[in-house]
Amino acid sequence: MAVDIKIPALGESITSGIIAAWHVKEGDFVEKDQVIFELETDKITSEGLAESAGKISLKAEEGDEVEIGQVVAVIDDSAAAPAASGKTEEKAEVSKEEAKAEPAPAKTDKATPDETQSPAVRRLAAETGIDPAKVDGSGKGGRVTKGDMLAAGEKPAAAPAPSASTPAAPATAPASDEGRTSRKKLTPLRKKIAERLVAATNEAALLTTFNEVDMSAVMNLRKQHQEKFVERYGVKLGFMSFFVKAVVNALQAVPDLNTQLDGDYVIQNHFYDIGVAVGSDKGLMVPVVRDCDEKNFATIEQDIIGYAKAARSGKIKLEDISGGVFTISNGGIYGSMLSTPLLNMPQTGILGLHNITERAVVINGEIVARPMMYLALSYDHRVVDGKGAVTFLVKVKEAIEDPTKLLFGV
């Protein structure tokens, strides 16, 4: 009986995707629930599973755009699994027969090839005069294979040196375009990221305000409690949980940043689901930590670590990246000193964090070295006034420089 493998429904807004990779080959025997392909959409990358065990026939190729519900493979569940026993012994016997069948290398006055080379390589070296030591090996550990020797024999011989009566060739030839550039289609995710960023610049009245924050208090707290924190919760106390809590505190003080514009209406959010931007091989993703006003530092750290692992392994779910009210982007982990982050539409604010560097600052009339970080808040000026944006950023700064404020929500 044939079992059709179809592209599953992934969400109301997702209608198609691209086969990013097949994990099986045509005619392979697959087990039930085995991962057989990766599907990349404009929002997430998901895995397709075998619905039954059997022999698989592929109906789409890597890179093909496929619709939801389209059949991409068929499994013949009447096919029996291949026998696993005897393969190793059979392979060993074949190798012995092949070794016996190799003719002895002919005697020659040329240099004797390395005895560590295979019989086939030594035979070709004797017949062609090609020295294996001068051939680039593609085998394990750089060993020269029979294919390498055959390919070397097919290369054209070097041109003879020009004689006195032959005009010399130009010293340099025009460079060929072949191999200098490559062309590939945007992935659905990268295309969607591009569309959203262009929309942010075209639709919103973007403005960015800056401040700087002294990280001494947070760093001292982490150093003081890190060991016990890890022992109790199994995760490290990072900087991000402090900033998530500081953002919640600031959103409560400045509700204009917890809104989104919908035509002629402003939607006021009364919950605190904070998106945390995560970089992955597939592109930038923003998983959302839910109800941050109700969670403690440990739960926030656990959520962030779990989402980051899922995003980087391509296992993020659609519901994980939907519904955030505000975004935090940490370019500092890549060494960024300052940036103007773009909005994650339809949100009206995004906080950019940057690297921490020791700088000379004046405190109580004295010049001291402190670990400082620049903060950048980009916001939609159609909804948020400058006073509200500056107040929001000051609230974040005050909460980080005096984390006890977070305990009392002031």
Would you mind describing this structure in some detail?
The chain has 410 residues and is an alpha+beta fold. The chain has three domains: 2-76, OB fold (Dihydrolipoamide Acetyltransferase, E2P) (Beta Barrel); 104-136, no CATH class; 188-408, Chloramphenicol acetyltransferase-like domain (Chloramphenicol Acetyltransferase). The protein is built from nine helices and 19 strands. Strand 18 (357-363) and strand 19 form a beta hairpin. The longest helix has 18 residues, at 216-233. The protein is globular and about 85 Å long. Mean pLDDT is 82; it is low at 104-113. Residues 87-113 have a biased composition (Basic and acidic residues). E2 component of the 2-oxoglutarate dehydrogenase (OGDH) complex which catalyzes the second step in the conversion of 2-oxoglutarate to succinyl-CoA and CO(2). GO terms for molecular function: dihydrolipoyllysine-residue succinyltransferase activity. It is an enzyme of class 2 (transferase).
